[in-house]
Structure formats: structure tokens, C-alpha cells
Amino acid sequence: MPEGPELHLASLFVNETCRGLVFGGCVEKSSVSRNPEVPFESSAYHISACARGKELRLTLTPAPGAQPPQEPLALVFRFGMSGSFQLAPAHALPPHAHLRFYTAPPAPRLALCFVDIRRFGHWDPGGEWQPGRGPCVLLEYEQFRGVGVGLMHPGCPSRENVLRNLSDKAFDRPICEALLDQRFFNGIGNYLRAEILYRLKIPPFEKARAVLEALQQHRLSPELTLSQKIRAKLQNPDLLELCHLVPKEVVQLGGKGYGPEHGEEDFAAFRAWLRCYGVPGMSSLRDRHGRTIWFQGDPGPMAPKGPSTSEQGPSQDTKGPETPY
């Protein structure tokens, strides 16, 4: 399932491949998609993208003098289980291309396609980020973290955050389940939660509040210089810092379907990067939503009853929501 890094990589892909291209005509939706029609038509327009957590905003901007006169239109995409963007020749569209933006003639026509094999993805022509989602763990770290000493801006307060909301009932749950709540961890998904908890040796079924309250108590010595504080945080990042740093590592790997090869080897660096998720020898359990959590060692006091299993690769988690949104 695409997580925050994949949405961010998708936005970079759209901006890179669409730079210099002029699109034209109507936006075309497949007949089998249940998503809404896109009410946009222009003789010449440009496409740009930005990502926030598990959402991507695509903006269609008419060129000067384009007809009919049209205001820019923004679409917000959620990728579901299998969404991605591809640029393809208009005469050779990829299978499952459920939304298509065509380049204007006379050059050989291309199509920017939203491809979604499993059809769980969604687009919203309203263009607004979903209001219930918290700050992006990749791009809005200070707001995401909130109170306390953070890696990027120590002591930065915020209007939306994790540490100011620990009384929320979401933190009564195991930490592995809380990490999928997009109100607080916008961009974290199944493989990221496993990798983050594994690096910190936190049992996945520890109570979330107990894990996070400890971060409120942690303060670096005021006698340390700023450079010493930054070095200490880089060497020993806490859970919220890893929620920012681990996705950044994935983005820096590139690939994930948006690399130059667009083939199986495109994912090789990512597979080599994984330390826990789907790695042979690791254990796994299902959380209360039916999602598989990978871990090593003791699962923690809130683990479901029954033995854990050791598998050779990640299963396809299709049960239950990863997020309430």
C-alpha cells in the first residue's frame, strides 16, 4: 500500500515528467471507475503536484489565452492499495488507467494516467486536504511533533501535534495501531511502522500512551551547545523523529515505481533497505484491524492471544482500515 514516501515520490515524478508539457482537452475517466467526473476542459494547461502525508494534490492550470476561460482546478488523490501515476503514449494506455490527462496536439500525444489496479484509490475535485488528517510526517515535522525538543527546531510549539493530544483514546491502543491513525501520523503506514518500532526495539503491542509520554519527560542537558544537542538527537532519534527520518530515507532511495527503469529492479534498493517488514526470520501478528505487524522479540503486553508466526515475505493486508479516514 502506498505510504507517505510513495505519495511524495509520485509528486516529484509528476512535476519532473510534466515540466514543459502542455496538456489539452477534457480529463477522461474510465467507465468502470466509481470516482467523480472531473469538470475541466482547456485548450492548453499545465499540471503540477504536491504531496501531504497520504494525499497528493494535482493542480491543472490553464495557460494564458487558453479556451474556454477556466480557473485552475485542484484534485486531491488518495492512492488506496495500489494507486500510482504513469506517463504513457496516448495510443498505449496502461491497464487500469482510471483517470487520464492528455497532452495537446500536434506533438505525439501522451497521457498522464492515474493507475489503480485494485480501485481503492479516490480523487476529490474539491482540491482540499482531508480536514481530519494531521500534519505530514515528512514535510511538517514541527507541527507533527508539537511540544518538546525536536530534531529540526528544538522546543518549537505547534497548533497540531502528537504530544499535546496524548489524552486522546487513540493512545489507549497498542503503539503499532496508533501509528496508523492518520489524525496524528499522517503518512505512516504498515511497512514504516514496522521499521520504526524495530529500530527502537519497542514491542509493537506496548500501550501507545506509555511509549509517547516518555518523550515528554526527555530533555537534553541545558549545558550542551546547540551543535552537541543536534549531534545527540541525530545519534539517538526518538520515535517521533524516526517518523520523520525513516520516510526521508525511503524518498532518498528513489525508485518505488518512479525510477528510471520502471521495472522489477526499480524496487531492489527498497527491498535491501528493509530491516524488519517481511524480512525472513521476523515474527508477525495481526492487529485488531487485521493488519500484519512485523517485529522481533516480545510483541508486548497488549498482543492478541495466540502464537506469532514467522513468514518469508509480507502478506497482502486487505482487512480493515489503516486509518479512520
Automatic annotation (TrEMBL):
Residues 307-318 have a biased composition (Polar residues). InterPro entries: Endonuclease-VIII_DNA-bd (IPR015371), FPG_cat (IPR012319), FPG_N (IPR035937), H2TH_FPG (IPR015886), Ribosomal_uS13-like_H2TH (IPR010979). The lineage of its organism: Eukaryota, Metazoa, Chordata, Craniata, Vertebrata. Residues 2-121 form the Formamidopyrimidine-DNA glycosylase catalytic domain. It comes from Castor canadensis (American beaver). SMART domains: Fapy_DNA_glyco, H2TH. It is found in: Chromosome; Cytoplasm, Cytoskeleton, Microtubule organizing center, Centrosome; Nucleus. Involved in base excision repair of DNA damaged by oxidation or by mutagenic agents. Acts as a DNA glycosylase that recognizes and removes damaged bases. Has a preference for oxidized pyrimidines, such as thymine glycol, formamidopyrimidine (Fapy) and 5-hydroxyuracil. Has marginal activity towards 8-oxoguanine. Has AP (apurinic/apyrimidinic) lyase activity and introduces nicks in the DNA strand. Cleaves the DNA backbone by beta-delta elimination to generate a single-strand break at the site of the removed base with both 3'- and 5'-phosphates. This is Endonuclease 8-like 1.
